[in-house]
């Protein structure tokens, strides 16, 4: 199904379900937000990547305007709904300051693999333990999806964008697991290296060998 969406390109990837807070200061995006308030409609955030507007993005609903400033700037709370692909892009939507485009909804296959999911949970625990940071994944809900952990894997924007373009949960899970399997040994080795660096320079209480 196709529809016309106001577009707000940003050099980030927004996943469905994700909550995003934005500070709106450019006149064109102030206009976009006011249009959405007036119509009760949604807008799209296509990922700006490799010096251009990517074909894929996330439809966004406006949850609330948190704060309005005297100069017209705003803080808004939003949430990602679903993924779209741009069919036709207008640098300016008809009669508006902001961009717009004809988009088609990307169907998401909810074909998760339970075994892969548990492997991801375990590898995430290992990763966060190795990094020595508080493990936010200890309390991951049973029904978590790849989108829930997408920003917590150490992926760069290109990798997150690849994840966004994939319309199968099972395939996204495979990509995530593969990434974790590749990155864990590197992290473990880096932690060992840090320990070795710390040890150098300390007074060492060593027992000389007998010979």
Descriptive notes:
Strands 1, 2, 3, 4, 5 and 6 form a six-stranded antiparallel beta sheet that branches. The mean pLDDT is 90. This protein is of the alpha+beta class. It has helices at residues 27-39, 114-131, 146-149, 157-165, 169-199, and strands at residues 2-7, 19-24, 43-49, 52-68, 74-90, 99-105. Helix 2 packs parallel to helix 5. The protein folds into two domains: 2-105, LON domain-like (Archaeosine Trna-guanine Transglycosylase, Chain: A, domain 4), CATH 2.30.130.40; 114-199, no CATH class. The protein is elongated, with a radius of gyration of 22 Å. The longest helix is centred in the C-terminal third of the chain and has 31 residues, at 169-199. It is 36% helix and 28% strand. Pfam families: LON_substr_bdg. Residues 4-182 form the Lon N-terminal domain.
Give the topology, please.
Elements: E1 2-7, E2 19-24, H1 27-39, E3 43-49, E4 52-68, E5 74-90, E6 99-105, H2 114-131, H3 146-149, H4 157-165, H5 169-199
Principal-axes shape call = elongated
Distance between the termini: 82 Å
N-to-C SSE series?
A: EEHEEEEHHHH
Helix content: 25-40%
Strand portion, in percent? 25-35%
Name the CATH architecture of the largest domain: Roll
Main CATH class of the largest domain: Mainly Beta
| CATH topology description of the largest domain | Archaeosine Trna-guanine Transglycosylase, Chain: A, domain 4
SS element count, helices: 5
Number of structural units classed as domains: 2
Unreliable segments of 5+ consecutive residues: none
The biggest sheet amounts to: 6 strands, antiparallel
From the structure provided, what is the oligomeric state, counting identical versus distinct chains?
single chain
Q: Pairing-aware structural class of the strands and helices?
A: alpha+beta
Radius of gyration: 22 Å
Write out the CATH superfamily name of the largest domain.
LON domain-like
In total, how many beta strands? 6
What is the typical, i.e. mean, pLDDT? Answer: 90
Protein name: Lon N-terminal domain-containing protein
Pfam families: LON_substr_bdg
InterPro entries: Lon_prtase_N, Lon_prtase_N_sf, PUA-like_sf
Organism: Pontibacter indicus
């Amino acid at each position: 199904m196709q529809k016309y969406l106001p577009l707000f390109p940003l050099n980030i990837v927004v996943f469905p379900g994700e909550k995003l807070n934005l500070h709106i200061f450019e006149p064109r995006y102030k206009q976009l937000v006011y249009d959405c308030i007036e119509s009760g409609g949604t807008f799209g955030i296509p990922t700006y990547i490799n010096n251009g507007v990517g074909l894929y993005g996330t439809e966004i609903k406006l949850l609330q305007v948190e704060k309005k400033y005297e100069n017209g700037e705003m803080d808004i709370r939003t949430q990602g709904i679903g993924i779209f692909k741009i069919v036709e892009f207008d640098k300016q939507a008809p009669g508006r300051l902001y961009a717009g485009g004809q988009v088609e909804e990307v169907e998401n296959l909810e074909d998760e693999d339970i075994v892969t999911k548990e492997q991801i949970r375990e590898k995430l625990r290992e990763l966060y333990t190795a990094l020595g940071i508080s493990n936010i994944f200890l309390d991951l809900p049973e029904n978590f999806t790849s989108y829930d952990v997408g920003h917590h894997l150490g992926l760069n924007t290109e990798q997150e964008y690849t994840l966004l373009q994939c319309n199968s949960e099972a395939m996204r899970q495979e990509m995530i697991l593969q990434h974790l399997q590749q990155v864990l040994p590197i992290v473990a080795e880096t932690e060992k290296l840090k320990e070795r660096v710390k040890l150098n320079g300390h007074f060492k209480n060593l027992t000389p060998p007998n010979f």
